[in-house]
């Protein structure tokens, strides 16, 4: 299932504009948190639980063979991630908030986004998504990202519509029949100037 990917870098790019008083993140180590809800059900938690149950049901040899793939899948469903943001990355951000929406659109090719507000601290947008090759989300979306300070950001992304076929129809513990409401909540906080073992 295609999901919106949030990061501190995205937050910075979203707000990049030639304006005085703009709030940009500090370079260094950041902790980013995210949660995806569909009809109020935590998709990432349900998927992690399903993967862990599958592992428990395997025999020792089968589990050993599957572990690298399962570990990768679990990492993809992590709700807390660390990110190293460099001063060079911040300096590279363009002057147009549309550039971030273009990146967002690349991650969700069936969607078209429209910027509705861009201030020194907040970006808001709306969008319309259609299935690609008969699969994916069909509905309207809206979102907001705010840099609350150079060391913190928060964001929401929500949509109302339905899912058509594909892997989205096989999410464990999540009923995708009929109309669905999708919501993503995300936030980031600065941990320190040094990234340690986390690579940019």
Summary of the model, kept short:
The protein is α+β, with helices and mostly antiparallel strands and 200 residues long. Helices cover 28% and strands 38% of the residues.
Description:
- The chain is α+β, with helices and mostly antiparallel strands and 200 residues long.
- The protein is built from 5 helices and 8 strands.
- Strand 1 and strand 2 (41-42) form a beta hairpin.
- Helix 2 packs antiparallel against helix 3.
- The longest helix is centred in the middle third of the chain and has 17 residues, at 60-76.
- It is globular and about 55 Å long.
- The chain starts with 7 loop residues before the first helix and ends in an 8-residue tail after the last strand.
N- to C-terminal separation? 26 Å
Tally the beta strands.
8
| Morphology | globular
Mean of residue pLDDT values: 80
Poorly predicted tracts of residues: none
Beta-strand content estimate = 35-45%
Tally of separate domains: 1
Q: What is the helical fraction, as a range of percent?
A: 25-40%
The value of Rg in angstroms is 18 Å
* Structural class by secondary-structure content: alpha+beta
Largest sheet: 8 strands, antiparallel
Topology as a string of helices (H) and strands (E):
HEEHHEHHEEEEE
Number of helices: 5
């Amino acid at each position: 299932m295609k999901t919106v990917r949030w990061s501190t870098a995205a937050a910075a790019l979203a707000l990049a504009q030639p304006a005085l008083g703009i709030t940009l993140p500090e370079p260094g180590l950041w902790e980013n948190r995210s949660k995806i809800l569909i009809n109020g059900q935590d998709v990432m938690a349900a998927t992690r639980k399903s993967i862990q149950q599958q592992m428990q049901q395997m025999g020792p040899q089968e589990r050993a063979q599957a572990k690298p793939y399962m570990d990768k899948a679990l990492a993809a469903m992590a709700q807390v991630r660390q990110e190293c943001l460099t001063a060079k990355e911040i300096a590279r951000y363009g002057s147009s908030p549309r550039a971030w929406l273009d990146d967002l659109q690349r991650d969700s090719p069936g969607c078209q986004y429209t910027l509705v507000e861009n201030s020194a601290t907040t970006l808001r947008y709306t969008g319309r998504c259609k299935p690609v090759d008969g699969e994916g989300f069909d509905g309207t979306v809206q979102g907001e990202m705010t840099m609350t300070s150079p060391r913190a950001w928060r964001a929401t992304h929500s949509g109302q519509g339905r899912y058509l076929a594909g892997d989205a129809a096989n999410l464990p513990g999540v009923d995708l029949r009929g109309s669905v409401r999708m919501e993503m909540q995300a936030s980031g906080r600065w941990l320190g100037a040094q990234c340690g073992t986390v690579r940019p």
